[in-house]
Amino acid sequence: MSVFILGVESSCDDTSASVIENTTILSNVIASQKVHAEFGGVVPELASRAHQQNIIPVIDTALKRAKIHKNQLSAIAYTNGPGLLGSLLVGSSFAKAMAYSLNVPLIEVDHLQAHVLANFLQKKDEKKEIPSFPFLCLTVSGGHTLILKVNDYFDMEVLGRTIDDAGGEAFDKAAKILGLPYPGGPVIDKLAKDGDPKKFSFAIAHIPGLDYSFSGLKTSFLYFVRDNLKTNPNFIADNLPDLAASIQYAIIRSLTNKVVKAIELTDCHDIVIAGGVSANSGLRSAMHQIADQYHRKLFVPTIDLTTDNAAMIAVYGYFKYLKNEFSTNDSTPYSTVRNKTSF
User: What DSSP assignment string belongs to 63-100?
Assistant: First the structure.
């Protein structure tokens, strides 16, 4: 029997709605907000206002592209956190009202778990292999960096996390130092393809266990560029591809060193990467090399499913629907990860 789930995602600056049939994507609509580029980062108040403008047309478009009527929906799933509270309130309030009006179940979804489960989504006329439990997942985005042991859809054990800044934030900060536009991660990735990753060396933090730290790397990159600009005002322009390649190499090395440790400490045969930074070509290449070296299978989401999107919200909602795990209208959004050891 077909289960139709409408997913609503509004955790940051993208308003997204998706309709899936079981685990197959029928539509996945994303409205991005251009206004933040001039500020070099997301402005929470502007983000929440843009969500209010975008949410109705985005949901309407998702239903039309899926070619189903709202009365055919089995349930509505929405992001309840973590994220920007103002943005989350827009999506959660609309989802609650719509579920109430249609008399269908409401399902709250954790944004980070949804990123992991994006690897279980199928596209029309596609039958791809999916990871087998338990598997390791490296989740990297602008706000989060985690290594998880995923035992099943509802049991994700945190093996390591950043103790300060996220990997995606390190990319964006490095781009800002170089005078590149926001978001900087994709720009650095593009420039790095023409650069020498070993032209400049940046030390990475050695944190015990499987935890990460990127604040020191960001600071050392800032001081390195600043000091060289004193002797050569054209230092950035003269070395831009090499600088991009070198800082990208340092960030990726920091990420993958911990993945190797996690492989050696667990019995997982499959590896998954998720989150916005999983779109980075350098990280994908490095993870493929690790998977080959350790004889593991690597699962990587398609580029359109790496960034924040409602299809990943909908698919986690689908698995919750099968368990009759529904939410109530008094559930409140949260801005940070609520449980430090598992999800």
Answer: HHHHT--GGG-SEEEEEEESS-HHHHHHHHHHHHHHHH
Domain boundaries of the chain, sorted by first residue: 4-121+305-322, 135-300
Strand residues in 71-229 grouped as ranges (E): 75-81, 106-110, 122-123, 135-140, 145-152, 155-161
| 35 vs 110: CA distance, rounded Å | 26
CA atoms within 13 A on the CB side of 32: 8
Kindly state the percentage of the chain with pLDDT values over 90: 83
Mean pLDDT for the stretch of residues 129-156: 95
Report whether 153 contacts 316 (CB < 8 A): yes
Query: pTM for the whole thing?
Result: 0.93
- The topology under which CATH files domain 4-121+305-322 is Nucleotidyltransferase; domain 5 (3.30.420)
- Rounded Cα distance between 122 and 23, Å, is 6
Strands (E), the chain: 4-9, 14-21, 24-32, 75-81, 106-110, 122-123, 135-140, 145-152, 155-161, 270-274, 297-299
Q: What is the largest CA-CA distance in the chain?
A: 69
Q: Which amino acid belongs to residue 109? A: V
The Cα 6–Cα 1 span in angstroms is 16
In this prediction, residues 160-171 reach a mean pLDDT of 94
Interaxial angle between packed helices 44-66 and 85-102, expressed in degrees from 0 to 180 and rounded to the nearest 10: 30
